[in-house]
Amino acid sequence: MKIVEKKDNILIFTVEADESILNTIRRYVNHIPVLAVDEIEISKNDSPLYDETIAHRIGLIPLKNENKTKGKLKLNVKKEGIVYSEELKGDIKVIYDKIPITLLGKNQELEFVANVKTGKGSDHSKFSPGLIFYRNVFEIKVDKNCPKEVIENCPRNILKLKDGKIIVEDNYQCDACESCVEYCKKNGKESIEVVPTKELLVTLESFGQLSVEDMFKKSIEVLKKDLAELAKKLSK
């Protein structure tokens, strides 16, 4: 395993693993319990957005997972300008303060009470803590007779000229578009080849409720729990 990139809510690493196992872990991200607004009671809405649109936006605001299973959020704003997520008040905290909810004009008002509960992304996307996706790492084999112009035909700019030779600067960036291969074929040469390796490039992206590390670990924990329950039922 090798970490390729790590920043804020994103982690990218390479690993040699069975794709079926990794795909199951990916799917189980949406089985992690996560807090989100489930119901909203709007008493005043003078904004240009329908009540349903306001409710949809509120539901998608990421909330801090503070070992709670339910809670309430309130908003009562009468001002001119943008209403942001930081103006939601209650026993649950929002993660990002500057998510715009709606826009109010002069003497317009927005007031509602929102009920928060724990749910799973498999039931509704608002409960999803993030994403996991992966693809093969590719090896680019360049023949010494490969035309130098192929460098300009790489959309990822990973082919470079060094000491008169074409080199691959970062094969992790290669997504197998095969623009380089097609260029060489059009010029009557098969002097470059893109081959998948056994390595997989895995990307974890958290929406903020959990760190990327916790999201990955909890996905595995929930999977193990379900497998243990299945084993019990099969043994009866």
Secondary-structure topology with pairs:
Layout: E1 2-7, E2 10-15, H1 19-28, E3 34-45, H2 51-59, E4 70-78, E5 81-84, E6 89-90, E7 100-104, E8 109-119, E9 130-142, E10 159-162, E11 165-168, H3 179-186, E12 192-206, H4 212-235
Antiparallel strand pairs: 1-2, 2-12, 3-8, 4-6, 4-8, 5-7, 9-12, 10-11
Helix pairs in contact: 1-4
End-to-end distance, in Å?
39 Å
Mean pLDDT: 93
Secondary-structure element sequence?
A: EEHEHEEEEEEEEHEH
Which structural class is indicated by helix and strand composition?
Answer: alpha+beta
Are there runs of 5+ residues with pLDDT below 50, and where? none
Strand content: 35-45%
Helix fraction?
A: 10-25%
Named CATH architecture of the largest domain? 2-Layer Sandwich
CA-based gyration radius: 25 Å
Strand order of the largest sheet: 1-2-12-9
The tally of beta strands, per DSSP, is: 12
**CATH topology value of the largest domain:** Alpha-Beta Plaits
Characterize the biggest β-sheet: 4 strands, antiparallel
How many structural domains does the protein architecture include?
A: 2
* Quaternary class: single chain
Instruction: Estimate the global geometry from the Cα principal axes.
Output: flat
Number of helices: 4
Question: CATH class of the largest domain, please?
Answer: Alpha Beta
